[in-house]
Design a protein that fits this description.
7 strands; Rossmann fold; globular; 193 residues
Length: 193
């Protein structure tokens, strides 16, 4: 794994553990020689995580829409900053650049970005692992909801299993390394006629 895309909040949130977790993840990825790909912001957990990775000698690539750059929320000290025209282009480029995806605590944007890459994995559009770094129990209600989706037969168990969640970033990376994506269902397999 050479690059991991990290989705996270443009706020630091209410719990100081979120900031500590973002810093820890940034340092860990840098120490492992894994490049960070993220939304390019300088604010909130986005900026915290990027700064920690950079301070630890890591490489960080940001992808930011021009409108956000013009509002001066873009990070000016990154290894690589790519400016795109839309949020759609941002997500597509981040997904293309990354070998895996981690969601730190965040708001609607974080949830939407993570849900999209997970959906793409379900559809067999990529085989990359998708994980939640569950700092301070932030994602516990979402994890319970995913299990409810399986119970109510709106989500297949094998697709639920694609969301790897852990409270420890090192364990999460170990689970990424061991990840084997499920087979694409026959009804989605483009190779079948």
């Amino acid at each position: 794994m050479h690059r991991i895309c990290v989705f996270c909040g443009s706020s630091e949130g209410a719990d100081p553990r979120y900031r500590a977790g973002a810093e820890g993840l940034g340092r860990l990825l840098a120490a492992r020689g894994i490049e960070v790909v993220y939304g390019g912001g300088s604010v909130g957990l986005m900026g915290v995580m990027a700064d920690a990775a950079l301070a630890a000698g890591g490489r960080v690539t940001g992808v930011i829409p021009r409108t956000l750059w013009e509002r001066e929320v873009g990070h000016r000290g990154l290894s690589d900053l790519r400016t795109v025209e839309s949020m759609h282009e941002r997500k597509a480029l981040m997904a293309e650049l990354a070998d895996a995806f981690i969601a730190l605590p965040g708001g609607a944007g974080t949830l939407e970005e993570f849900a999209e890459v997970w959906t793409w994995a379900q559809l067999g559009l990529h085989p990359k692992p998708c994980g939640l770094l569950d700092i301070g129990g932030y994602y516990d209600p979402l994890i319970a909801f995913l299990d409810r989706m399986v119970e109510q037969r709106f989500l297949r168990a094998e697709h639920r299993a694609m969301v790897l969640a852990d409270t420890d970033p090192e364990r999460l990376l170990a689970r990424f390394a061991a990840y084997v994506p499920p087979a694409v269902p026959k009804w989605l397999d483009r190779k079948q006629t």
